[in-house]
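Box S1 | Example of a co-folding query
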Amino acid sequence: MLSKFLRAPAALAAIAFSTRAAADYAVDILPPVTPVSREIYDLHFGILWVCVAIFFVVFGAMFWSIFKHRKSVGAKAAQFHENTTIEIIWTIVPFVILIGMAYPATKTVLDMKDASNADISVKVTAYQWKWEYDYQQDGVKFLSHLSTPRDQIEEYGKPGAKKNENYLLEVDQPMVVPVGKKVRLLITSNDVIHGWYVPQLGVNQYGIPGFIKDAWFTIEKAGTYRGQCSQICGKEHGYMPIVVQALEPDKYAAWVKDMKAKMPAEQPAAAAPPPTDAGGSATAGATGASQAGATGAAQQVASAAPATAADGKSTYDKTCMACHSTGAAGAPKLGDKAAWAPRLKQGIAALHASALKGKGAMPPKGGNTGLPDDAVKAAVDYMAAAAK
Ligand code: HEC
Ligand SMILES: [Cu+2]
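Box S1 (continued) | Returned holo structure for copper (II) ion
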């Protein structure tokens, strides 16, 4: 009798799991490509199977009791309470199950949070509705926007153009990282809360204005991995995808070189540090003229050449001028003897230190933390010489 009820679902299950059908309808989450995302993946399925087992044990016992002890076959309820053995069992068993799940879960969370000893750090700033990637060591900085053509997105009244394969998950400039290296992300936002989410990397981290949160990944396999902003961050929140391209280290180095060569021309804003509006407008006029110098400085930075007076000027033009040419935010103006005199009295070493560490409204290294210490010191020397 029972088998009659089971036959239909069994037939359905057989169809669903027959090999061909299973291949067509396989349900899975995206394959993990980092050690942490693999841990998350295994945790997901491990705990799913624990739940499935509990489901069968609990419902099995329930249905067995209902059928075996139903009234129509004359079952009589047993009248007892307080069975110490049963109470101990139903406390111990769930306790062991919970500990068994909490241990691997806690281990995974700790691994996710351990962004120490990274090989490269990239500051990720979210904007409505794009991402900015600022490579701290390599001095590369760019914006990444959705690149899906508008006519594929808009379908007012008529079907839009044919959609690309990665419709809404494609960008003009992907984040590029080396395979096998630990990449630390420093995630923040410029306006509202966003979320940097790439499932295959096991990273889903809020970008919160005024805070820097870190996350990390080490990609094991070259390839392209896609994600999206995971917060409802405004009307175009669906239009800020993330594309991470993992390259072999030598190809990555070539990419960095290539990006550096074209960066200043594409991104004049990169030369101006963010903090003050006055700083920003002050550089605007001078940007064009200083670009050539800035590229030169970037290349010298890469080869770690000893700082020279020329370096000092180009670093000044690139990073310090924003505030120090106008005196924005109380910065002592270049060549203003009265403003510099009391500061020079501290001695050059103290000035080096405050330029490196930041002072008052001046952020460390004038906001460009990718600068080597020598370049900053050279810029201080240049400014000190101009004030004598
Ligand atoms: C965002 C604006 C800003 C930028 C960019 C900036 N500075 Fe400054 N700087 C300031 C301000 C403001 C002060 C005055 C700080 C104070 O005395 O409180 C200052 C002071 C200094 C001083 C004097 C420190 C002292 O101890 O009196 C030095 C040296 C200096 N900056 C060097 C640099 C160098 C080198 C750079 C580029 C690498 C740079 N600054 C970029 C704003 C800036
Ligand atoms: Cu967003």
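The first helix runs from residue 2 to 17. Strands lie at 120-127, 130-135, 140-144, 175-178, 183-189, 194-198, 203-207, 213-217, 223-229, 241-247.
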